[in-house]
C-alpha cells in the first residue's frame, strides 16, 4: 500500500496543477463568510478536540459579510489554515478564527498560540513543498503544499494574505478579500 503521505502529496500536486492550467475561479457565486466560517469550525471541531486545543469562531461583523468567489475553494483555504494552526499548537492552546471587515474588504484571520514561525522562514512558507526545518524531520505532517494552495486561491479571488508571527508565541494568518455590498 502507498503511504498516506504520498497519496496526499499526489492529490495536492494535482490540485495545484489543475489550478495552473485552468487559472481556477470556476464556480464563482456570492458566498456568505459568516456561514462558511461557522461550517468549517464546526467541521474541524473533532480535529481540535483530538489535539486538545480550543477552536473558536469570532464573527465580529454585525451584518452578513459576502464575497464573490468559489465556495469550495474558500472552504479549502480555511481548512488548510486551521489544520496548520492545529498541527503547530501544543495541547491546551487556542485557535481563533475571526471575521472582521474594513471599507471594501472582508478579513479572515486564523490566530494560534503555537510554535510560531521564524522571520527568515515567513517569506518561504508559501513556496511549494517548503516546510520549516524543524517540521521536516517530523514523521507526521504534510507535504508543504497547503499554503501554496491557499495563496493560489486567494490570489485568484483578488485578495492577499499576511503573516504575523513570533517564535514560541504563535501566528496569525490574515486573508483579505474584496467584499460584496449587501
Ligand atoms: N500556524 C502555523 N504555525 C507554525 N508554523 C506553520 C503554521 N502554518 C504553517 N507553518 C509552517 O509552514 C510550513 C508550510 O505549511 P504548508 O501548509 O504549506 O505545509 P504543511 O502543513 O507542512 O503540509 P501540507 O499542508 O501540504 O499538509 C509548515 O510545514 C510549517 O513549518
Ligand atoms: Mg499545511
Structural overview:
This protein has a five-stranded mixed sheet with strand order 2-4-5-7-6, with helices on one face. Strands 1-3 form a two-stranded antiparallel sheet. Helix 3 (71-87) runs antiparallel to helix 5. The protein has five helices and seven strands; from the N terminus they run αβαββαββααββ. The chain is 38% helix and 25% strand. It has helices spanning 4-22, 33-50, 71-87, 133-136, 146-156, and strands spanning 29-32, 54-59, 66-69, 94-101, 105-112, 160-166, 170-178. It has one domain: Heat Shock Protein 90 (2-Layer Sandwich). The protein has 182 residues and is an alpha+beta fold. The radius of gyration is 16 Å and the shape is globular. Bound molecules: adenosine-5'-triphosphate (ATP) and magnesium ion. Magnesium ion binds next to helix 3.
